[in-house]
Amino acid sequence: MPEAWWRGAVIYQVYLRSFADGDGDGVGDLAGLRSRLPYLSELGVDAVWLNPWYPSPMADGGYDVADYRGIEPVFGTLADAEAFIGDAHALGIRVILDVVPNHTSDQSAWFRAALAAGPGSPERARFWFRRGDGDAPPNDWQSIFGGPAWTRAPDGEWYLHLFAPEQPDFNWNHPDVRAEFLDVLRFWFDRGVDGFRVDSAALPVKDPDAAPDGRDPYTDRDGVHDIYREWRRLTDAYPGRMLVGEVWLPDQERLARYLRPDELHTVFNFPFLGAPWDAAALRTVIDDTLATLAPVGAPATWVLSNHDVTRTVTRYGRADTAFDHADRKHGMPSDLTVGMRRARAAALLSLALPGSVYIYQGEELGLPEVEDLPDELRQDPIWRRSGRTDPGRDGCRVPLPWSGTEPPFGFGAGTPWLPQPADWKDLTVEAQQADPSSMLSLYRAALRIRAAELGDGALTWLPMGDDVLAFTRDSGLTCVVNLGADPVRVDGEVLLASGPLDGDVLPADTAVWLR
Ligand code: GLC
Hints:
alpha/beta; TIM Barrel; Oligo-1,6-glucosidase, domain 2; Immunoglobulin-like; 18 strands; globular; binds alpha-D-glucopyranose
């Protein structure tokens, strides 16, 4: 692959805790991941993105980082991490890490020092410590996980946390913070990693003392771009490395600002992820995406799922197929047969669009969201912080089923940290690789054809009716997706279809690749 490999890469998201467990403690780890690398190679992915693997008390699944230069002991050691990077590279798979600049763990050395040093100390200046308003917090900001965004230290001062109290926010006006993160990026680039996924990338810059100016006080503040310009300068010193931002912004113009040539290389396409299963809505998102990215020269990314959102099969089987953080529609009825058909079609759609594609682990197996986890096993802080009204994100984080007919389905020797449904016996890797009509077989075939035939040329829409998304790529590959109720006639040599065709007729909720 060329130096700008990320422009067209298929990137597989590894949620390490739930991928494969090598040491039998019920939690996925680096030994498990290394043993399963041949699976990823056979699937045909170009890169993996790993959720945080750093030492962490796991108050938010590792997004509470206690040490940015180490490996969480439950996952392995720094030597394991280096061996993993070497193994992946030997298979031609690049490695993207998660970096979390907005906040750290309350157990990090800096935050502990800040608490110990007391009010007014230089140690506290790296965070947002403030005196309250009497017994009330310094302002009315709310945490994204629910409840106030301020927690009181034993000496009476309050500190800011946009997420859980265990995740104190850094003060990015402080030079120590800026220098620290440049050094962290360097630390991992020097160990061979190929890029970073930047967590909560629109949030680091804020000023709780500033008077309200009518805009969101901590999202997408202009100053945030200085950070990414600095990071880009550093990244450019390492050839072939990239940065992808987690930027949830509805406004595509604001989003494109993160992708100016001297900032991030790509951002996740969340408008695409959130769009309902509707031809007009999806076409609008695709057109808007391509139109806003063209002027900054950044490639699109196509994302259907990740560790924070409802699994595709479940979402597409509901009456309302859009995804919205504020309303996860947890427990709303879902027809999983319909959902599976649409998820298969959506996979062919996203893999045929121009740009790179992210696949969240388990999507290639068509796993549904697990909605009946026992309450006492739920770990997502959203569950607790919402007063047990929002079950949160554990349902898309259940350990993968690899083989066998009962839990733990080859995940590892121990009891998985979240229980797997008994009916996943039909969804294991083992069961699916023996079945040419499985979701796994579809993904493998699609990735193979994509690598051989898709090219990086432009997309041209074909007029095939309001309920049909149809386009040709410059390479000659045509993708037709039927989102309507009526069958449509297609013409050409069928390379791959998401479901059975009836002669040259494409049924509802089905996609086909033609030449
Ligand atoms: C990002 C992560 C999410 C995490 C949050 C706080 O949105 O994807 O899992 O909880 O940031 O770090």
